[in-house]
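Researcher: Next sequence.
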Amino acid sequence: MTTPVAAFEVYSVAGEDRLSSPLRRAAQWAGTAVVSLFDLGGGGAPAMTDIVFRLVLDGSEVHRLQPSDIDDVQATLELAQHDLRTLDAVDFADAWFD
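Model: Next structure:
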């Protein structure tokens, strides 16, 4: 029987700028400013960051999540980083990848 490999030895996770056009990013920023200015509520600012899982070995992308708002980005990234430290690679993959 082999010893399980820790998830952090196989995978990494980080926030990366969302791939979108400058025009779309400007529109998102403007929308966020309007919501903040008028205190319209409805959650956090739109996310402009994706959560990207990569292989440590070569940096290739394994999975990408696109949270809807900045609060989701932070919470999901913290949970993924916690799981990287505490799960083995198989359990981590089962929990995070479709």
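Model: The chain has a mean pLDDT of 86. The beta strands are 11-17, 49-55, 61-65.
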